[in-house]
Amino acid sequence: MAGTYLQLYIHIVFAVKGRDNLIGDSWKNDLYKYICGIIKNKKQKPIIVNGVADHIHLLISLNSGTAISGLVRDIKNNSSNFINKNKFVKGKFHWQNGYGAFSYSQSQVTNVYDYILNQEKHHKRKTFKEEYQGLLKKFEIEYNEKYLFDWIT
User: Fold this and answer.
1) Which position has the higher pLDDT, 4 or 121?
2) Is the pLDDT of residue 153 over 50?
3) Exposed, middle or buried, 107 (CB in 10 Å: 0-12/13-18/19+)?
4) Long-range contacts formed by 15-18: CB under 8 A, 24+ apart
5) Which residues have a Cβ under 8 Å from the Cβ of 133 and sit 6 or more positions away?
6) Which of 55, 95, 101, 66 has its CA nearest to residue 79?
7) What pTM was computed for the model?
8) CATH assignment of 8-147?
9) Is residue 132 within 8 Å of 73, Cβ to Cβ?
């Protein structure tokens, strides 16, 4: 729409189904590039995509007219198809249902970028469960643990 200007920075997090450690070092960068392509094809701007073997983080500059739920659905569907088509894993790859989406201001982008960039280092100190629940608490999002991702005990 003419005369409409907005800039939204959204940090998205989602996990491999069953929290299995399936994202391999040998192909994760191909996956991240592919996800960036999906985001660009949806007329959005990927800032960074990174993660570890069982989950990924995306920081996206979101433009007007895009529903986050539809964008995440398309990213998850298309990236699952990419992984399965390339036979990166034995059997069929799936992402878990659900995701987290958190908004940040322009002044926070560098810190969020660095946080996502350093996921491997970060997860030497903190589990994904601790990280995810920490984000939910930081953003004051009420949740029922029963409906969160399947956690490995």
Assistant:
1) 121
2) no
3) exposed
4) 15/54, 15/55, 15/95, 15/96, 15/128, 15/149, 16/53, 16/54, 16/55, 16/93, 16/94, 16/95, 16/96, 17/93, 17/94, 17/95, 17/96, 17/150, 18/96, 18/150
5) 148
6) 95
7) 0.90
8) 3.30.70.1290
9) no
